[in-house]
Write a structure and sequence with these properties.
The chain is an alpha+beta fold. Helices cover 38% and strands 17% of the residues. It has a four-stranded mixed β-sheet, sandwiched between helices. This is Nucleoside deaminase. InterPro entries: CMP_dCMP_dom, Cytidine_deaminase-like. One of its GO terms (molecular function) is catalytic activity.
């Protein structure tokens, strides 16, 4: 079953590429292996840099599934999730991710990503910034 679901994710990646988007596809399966939802990358056609299939599925799961149900799901994806998608997956409570192509393997198939070109500054104004956060997580 795992290989069939990974092959479906790869088909979704081909759909993304055929529609003019980066070639990534993913699906979310329930505990019994039934496909709950499928997505592919639409970052170019949607003009949305966050329109990765893994992020879309994590958002769907967090919105549509109970935490108990989400924990029993498996995401099958054509490529190892990026950092942005990994963060969303962690917060969504999905139980498992299975990927076909690793980040290292992907790197051999595309040019290197440009170095980050922004400056990150902080922390600053701790006494003020902590006020809306203090006590929220207790």
């Amino acid at each position: 079953m795992t290989e069939a679901l990974l092959r479906r994710a790869i088909e979704l990646a081909a759909t993304a590429r055929a529609s003019g988007n980066p070639p990534f596809g993913s699906l979310l399966a329930g505990a019994g292996g039934k496909v709950l939802v499928e997505e592919w990358n639409t970052s170019l056609t949607d003009r949305d840099i966050t329109a990765h299939p893994e992020l879309k599925l994590a958002r769907w799961a967090a919105r549509e599934l109970s935490p108990e149900t989400a924990a029993l799901t498996t995401m099958y994806t054509s490529c190892q999730p990026c950092g942005m998608c990994t963060g969303a997956i962690e917060r969504s409570g999905l139980g498992r991710v299975v990927f076909a192509l690793s980040t290292q393997q992907l790197a051999t198939l595309k040019p290197p990503a440009p170095a980050a070109s922004f400056e990150l500054q902080g922390p600053a104004l701790f006494d003020e910034a902590r006020l809306p956060v203090a006590g929220y997580y207790h």
